[in-house]
Specification:
This protein is α+β, with helices and mostly antiparallel strands. Strands 13, 17, 18, 19, 20 and 21 form a six-stranded mixed beta sheet that branches. It has a four-stranded mixed beta sheet with strand order 1-10-9-8, with no helix packed on it. Helix 18 (about 540-550) packs antiparallel against helix 19 (about 555-565). The longest helix has 16 residues, at about 210-225.
Length: about 600
C-alpha cells in the first residue's frame, strides 16, 4: 500500500485536458476567509470508515481509514505529503519526529520528538512510540504493512533514553531512504498511559513490554476498534494528538459511516483548525454523490467520469474543478490460492496472454476521458519521480489479440473465440498447459469488483468483452468497496477457506503507497505479506525486494521493478485520476491535492453563507 528525502522529485507536468488542471495557489487560495462553519466532504463510494485503531490490518487498509480518518486524529511519527504541492515526500514540519539520526554503522536510529500533547493533557513521549513498536512486534501478522523479514523483524532493542528521544537498534543496516519511508513512516505514537490495558475495567499497566502482554493489549484494542457502534462514546478514541477528534456521542453513524470530526482543543502541533466541524458524507453510488453536488449539499466532492460533460454546470453553480493524482497504481488481482483458478494463474504465459488483452490506452481515452495514465509495472510513472525505469515507461505487453491467442495455443490450449478455451495438452512439459491443470480445464473465471462507480463497471465490461475474443470467459460480480477489500483478504490457501474468489478489482487506485512510500513491494508482492491477498509467491521477487531494502541507491529497487513488471504478479490496469474534485468557491485553503490521499481540513476556511 504506500513511501523520500525532500527535493528529489521533478515538477509534475500540468494537465491540459478539457480545461481541468491541478489546483494552484492562485486559483484556489482566495481571499481571507472567516473561521467556523461546517465543511461537507464526500467519502469514497461504498467505503465508509471501518477501523479506528491506528494499527490497521490488511482488510481495513483502504484510504477510507488510512488517509481520511485515522491520521486526522493520530499523527504518524513522520508525515508524507504536502498541502502546497503534489510531491509525496517527507514533510518534517508536520512530523512529530525530527529527522532521524543514524549511528552504529547504520544499525541504530535515534529520533527526537517535537512537543505534542495528547488531548487528555499528557505529553506525547518516547514511551508512546515504544508502545506502538511493542504492539507491532508481538502482533505483526495482523498488521497491514508486514511482510516476513521486514524491518520490524530486525529490531533488537527499543530504548527511551529520555522523554522526547527514542532509539531503535536493528540487526543490520538498511537503505536509509527505505527505512525512513517504509519503516519509520509507519510508526504512529499512541497513548500508552491511556491504552496500555487488557480490558475496559482493568488497570493501566506496562503490559506491552512482554510479548504475552502486548498480545493481550492488542486483542483488547482491536476488539474495541471493531465495535463501530461505540466509536464516538468510547473514551479510548477521544485521546488523540492530531488536530481532530470524533464528535463525542454523535460523531459516527455505524449504519452508513457518516463521520463528524471537530477540532481537538488541545492540539499542540502546527496548523490548528479554523472550521468548526468536518462532516465526511457516505455515498453508495456515484449518482448519489453527484446529486448531492447539484443540490449544494457538498463543499468538497468529485465529478464522476461519465458526467464530465456537466462540468460547466457545476462551475455555474459556484464550484471549481480540479484533477487529483495519486501515488499508487492499479491492477486486477488473480487469486493464486483458489483451487480451480490458481494453477492456471501460476502460469506466466497465461498472465501474459491476459495482459495482452487489456487495452490500457483505449480505456484511458474512452472510459476515463483522458484523465489517466497507464500502469506497466509496480512503480507509478505519475507524479514525476526518479524511481520509474525506462522499461516501466514502455509497454512490455501491448494490446494484441493475436499474441494472446498465440501464447495460449503454443501452450496446449484449444482457443475458442467467443466460447471457452480449454486445455487440450495437460502436463508440465514444453507446449503443455502447465502443472496442476487438467485436460478440459476451462479459461473461465469470476471477477469481483467495486459497485457504484460507472467508470469501473465500464472498464470491467470492456475487459470481459475483449477477453472473450480469446475464449477467456469472465463472470462479473459487483459489491461495495469495503466488501471487496475485506472478502479478498481472508483466503487461506492451506485450507481453501475464503478462497472462492478468483479475480478481484478494487477500483483505481488498487494500491496507494501509504503509509509505506518508497515504492518497493514487500507489503504487496512479498510471500506471506498481509496485503498480498492473492498469495503470489516468487523466490526471485522476494530476493529482489529484500535487496531493495538494503542496497544503497536506486539500483536494487529498479531491478525489482523491471522484474515484477515483466512477471505480472497482478494484471496491470490503467490509473484514472484519483478523482476530479469539485470544490465549493466558499471553501478556501486547498492549494494542492496530496497524491498520498491525505487531506488537510485544518487548513480549510469558509466564507459566505
Amino acid at each position: 500500500m504506500s513511501r523520500h528525502p525532500v527535493g528529489r522529485w521533478g515538477a509534475l507536468a500540468a494537465l491540459a485536458i478539457a480545461g481541468v488542471g491541478t489546483v494552484g495557489v492562485s486559483a484556489v487560495a482566495g481571499r481571507a476567509a472567516a473561521s467556523g462553519g461546517t465543511v461537507t466532504f464526500a467519502q469514497l463510494v461504498g467505503a465508509p470508515p471501518t477501523y479506528i485503531f491506528p494499527l490497521l490490518d490488511g482488510a481495513n487498509s483502504g484510504n477510507n481509514n488510512l488517509t481520511y480518518t485515522v491520521p486526522l486524529m493520530w499523527r504518524p511519527l513522520y508525515w508524507f505529503g504536502h498541502r502546497h504541492s503534489v510531491q509525496p515526500t517527507i514533510n518534517y514540519r508536520l512530523s512529530i519526529g525530527e529527522p532521524p539520526v543514524f549511528s552504529n554503522g547504520g544499525r541504530t536510529v535515534s529520533i527526537t520528538l517535537h512537543h505534542y500533547l495528547w488531548s487528555d493533557g499528557r505529553p506525547v513521549t518516547s514511551r508512546d512510540v515504544a508502545f506502538w513498536v511493542n504492539l507491532i512486534r508481538a502482533n505483526k501478522i495482523d498488521w497491514c504493512c508486514y511482510s516476513p523479514g521486514d524491518w520490524i523483524d530486525q529490531v533488537t532493542a527499543v530504548r527511551t533514553p529520555s522523554a522526547n528521544r527514542v532509539q531503535l537498534t536493528f540487526t543490520r543496516a538498511f537503505n536509509q531512504n527505505w527505512l525512513t519511508d517504509n519503516g519509520l513512516s509507519e510508526i504512529t505514537p499512541i497513548p500508552q498511559a491511556a491504552w496500555d490495558r487488557t480490558s475496559a475495567s482493568g488497570p493501566i499497566g506496562n503490559y506491552d513490554t512482554t510479548p504475552r502482554g502486548a498480545v493481550a493489549v492488542y486483542r483488547y484494542l482491536n476488539a474495541q476498534s471493531g465495535d463501530r457502534v461505540t466509536w464516538d462514546t468510547n473514551p479510548l478514541w477521544q485521546v488523540v494528538d492530531g488536530p481532530w477528534r470524533l464528535l463525542r456521542g454523535s460523531g459516527f453513524d455505524p449504519a452508513n459511516g457518516f463521520t463528524t470530526l471537530v477540532p481537538n482543543s488541545r492540539y499542540s502541533g502546527p496548523d490548528r483548525p479554523h472550521i468548526a466541524r468536518l462532516e465526511e458524507v457516505p455515498f453508495t453510488s456515484d449518482a448519489a454523490e453527484f446529486d448531492a453536488l447539484l443540490s449544494g449539499e457538498l463543499d468538497y466532492g468529485y465529478l464522476p467520469f461519465p458526467d464530465l460533460s456537466l462540468r460547466g454546470e457545476l462551475v455555474r453553480r459556484g464550484y471549481r474543478v480540479a484533477s487529483w493524482l495519486y501515488w499508487g497504481f492499479t491492477f486486477l488481482e488473480p487469486n493464486y490460492g483458489n483451487r480451480a483458478a490458481g494453477p492456471i494463474f501460476r502460469q506466466l504465459y497465461v498472465r501474459q496472454a491476459m495482459q495482452h488483452l487489456i487495452d490500457e490506452p483505449a480505456y484511458i481515452r474512452s472510459i476515463f476521458k483522458g484523465f489517466g495514465w497507464p500502469t506497466y509495472g509496480p512503480v507509478p510513472v505519475q507524479p514525476a519521480n526518479p524511481y520509474a525505469t525506462g522499461f516501466e515507461r514502455t509497454n512490455p505487453y501491448p494490446f494484441s489479440l493475436s499474441a494472446a491467442k498465440g501464447l495460449l495455443r503454443s501452450h496446449g490450449w484449444t482457443v475458442a473465440p467467443g466460447g471457452t478455451s480449454t486445455c487440450s495438452r495437460p502436463g508440465g512439459g514444453t507446449g503443455e498447459c502447465g502443472s496442476g491443470i487438467a485436460r478440459g480445464a476451462p479459461l473461465s473465471f469470476s471477477l469481483l469488483y467495486q459497485s457504484g462507480v460507472p467508470s469501473v463497471t465500464q472498464e470491467m465490461e470492456a475487459l470481459k468483452s475483449t477477453f472473450s475474443l480469446a475464449g477467456i470467459q469472465i463472470g462479473l460480480r459487483q459489491a461495495p468497496y469495503s466488501y471487496v477489500l475485506s472478502s479478498t483478504a481472508v483466503c487461506d490457501p492451506k485450507t481453501g477457506a475464503g478462497c472462492g474468489w478468483q479475480l478481484a478489482d478494487w477500483g483505481p487506485p488498487s494500491i496507494t503507497y501509504v503509509p509505506v512510500y518508497y515504492p518497493t513491494g514487500g507489503t504487496i508482492f512479498g510471500t506471506g505479506a498481509p496485503i498480498n491477498t492473492g498469495h503470489y509467491s516468487n523466490a526471485r521477487t522476494d530476493l529482489l525486494i529484500a535487496q531493495s531494502h538494503i542496497g544503497a541507491g536506486l539500483g536494487a529497487l529498479q531491478r525489482y521493478e523491471n522484474y515484477v513488471a515483466a512477471q505480472l504478479p497482478d494484471l496491470w490496469l490503467p490509473n484514472s485520476d484519483y478523482q476530479i474534485s469539485v470544490i465549493s468557491s466558499r471553501l478556501h485553503g486547498i492549494t494542492a491535492q496530496d497524491p498520498t490521499g491525505h487531506i488537510y481540513p485544518e487548513d480549510w476556511t469558509l466564507s459566505g453563507p
